[in-house]
Design brief:
By secondary structure, the chain is α/β, with parallel strands linked by helices. Helices cover 39% and strands 18% of the residues. The protein has a single domain (2-312), classed as LigB-like (Protocatechuate 4,5-dioxygenase, Chain B), CATH 3.40.830. It has an 8-stranded mixed beta sheet with strand order 6-3-7-2-8-1-10-9, with helices on both faces. It is globular and about 55 Å long.
Length: 313
Amino acid sequence: MGLGTSHGSQVSLTPDWWGKHGELDRKRTRYDELLRERDTARIEAELAPEVWQRKYEAVQAAVGTLSKTLAAAHPDVLVIVGDDQNELFRESNTPAVAVYWGDHVDDLPRDLTGVPASRAAAMWAKHAKARERYPVAAPLGRHVVEHMMLAGFDVAQLSEQPEGRSIGHAFTFVRLRLMGERIIPVVPIMLNTYFPPNQPTARRCHALGRELRRAIESWPEGLRVGLVASGGLSHFVVDEELDRMVLDGIAGRDGERLSGIPEAKLQSGSSEIKNWIVAAGALGGLAFEVVEYVPGYRSRGGTGCGMAFARWS
C-alpha cells in the first residue's frame, strides 16, 4: 500500500492562523507581481472565514482517513520518501538521494526562538516536544542501498545520525499525524528537492521509484511494506493546474507526463511533488485514489499550499 500526504504548516494550522501564515509569503514569493498577474477577485472569495473553516475540516478529515488506512494495512515497515530541508544534512553538503539505514533515528525538539508565530503554532505536527527515537528497518535499508548501486543509482547512505541534527519534518509528520500509537519501523529515503545544483529531475525521480519497487520486492524476508510520499503539492504559490496534472498523471499511470514536468515548475515548496513522483514510480501497479485535494489560498496574491491526500491500494 501507499500514501501521499502534504505536510506543510497549513495542514496543521487552525483557520485563524491561515492569514497570518500568508503574511510570510510576502517575503518568499514575487508577491507584488502576483497581485498584478492573478485574478484577485476570485482569490478573495477563497479567503472568507467560512471557506477557510470548510477547507480546514476537509484537510483534517483527509489526514484522519490516511491514518486509518495505515492502521488497517498494518505494515511491518514504512518506507518514507521525503525531502531534507537543511535538517539531517546541511545545505552545503546535501546528497541528491540518500537512504538512512541505522538501527534508529531521532526526532529532536525544535528550538522555537525566532520562529514566526504561525510556523511555531504548527510545530506540534513536525517535531515532538521531547527527543523521540524511531526504529529503523536497517537490513531493508541497507538492501535498498545495495540494490540501487547495482542498478546504477549512486545513492548516499547513512548508518549514523549526525550529532545535533534531527530527522526532517517530512518524516516526523508521518509519525506524529499518521502513525498514531503504533510506531512502525521506517526506512527514510531523502531527496534533495530544494537546493541547487544537484536536485534530481522529475524523470530521475520516476525511474528511482520504479527501481525502489524492485529493491523492495527482491528483499527475501516476508515483510508487509508500505510507502509514503510526504510533502507538496504546489506552494508557496498555489498552482491548481499543476496539482491537478500531477494527480491525474499518477491516476493514469502516465510516467512520461510526470517525468516531463519542467524543472522550473518544481522549485521551492513545489519541489516536494518529486516525492510523489518517486511514489508513483514505485506504486504504479496499484489503484490510486485521491482522498482530498484542497487549494489552500491564504493571501490575495494566491499564495498558500495545494494540500493533497491520496492512497494506493
